Amino acid sequence: MADKRHADDAQARRLPESFKDSPRTSLGPCGWILVAASFLFTLVTFPISIWMCIKVIAAEGEMNASRALKEASMVITESPAALQLRYLQTLTTIAAEKNSTIVFPLPIDMLQGIVGAKH
């Protein structure tokens, strides 16, 4: 029996340190508790991190949309005809989407003249 113990000790000395315990022992109760806790932590934090990623992507989209609106407003302020064309394009889009009657108001230039005359 002492010879067998001596042979096991000699074999243990020959193995590298990383191999001495890992193949022969299991996790034990504390190890399983840690595995379960880390798994639950992952389950809880993963949806939160996905939600934060979606919020960042949505914020970037809103920023790009606001930049596009700024550029569009700069183009419209440079050319009043561009505003009239955009207005007509919007009316065309509405007419194509919904089959209804559209009341076509006065042109924008005439409205500006009326508003300017009152002040």
Describe the structure.
The protein is mostly helical and 119 residues long. It is built from 5 helices and no strands.
- What about the largest sheet? none
- Beta content comes to under 5%
Per DSSP, the total helix count is 5
* Structural class based on helices, strands and sheet pairing: mainly alpha
Instruction: Count the E strands.
Output: 0
Please provide the ordered H/E string of secondary-structure elements. HHHHH
Q: What is the overall shape?
A: rod-shaped
Fraction of residues in H or I helices = over 70%
Q: What integer value in Å does the Rg equal?
A: 37 Å
Between the first and last Cα atoms, what is the distance in angstroms?
112 Å
Report the mean per-residue pLDDT as an integer. 77
Question: Characteristics of this structure?
Answer:
about 80% helix; mainly alpha
Provide a brief overview of the structure.
By secondary structure, the protein is mainly α.
SSE blueprint:
Blueprint: H1 2-14, H2 17-21, H3 28-78, H4 80-97, H5 108-118
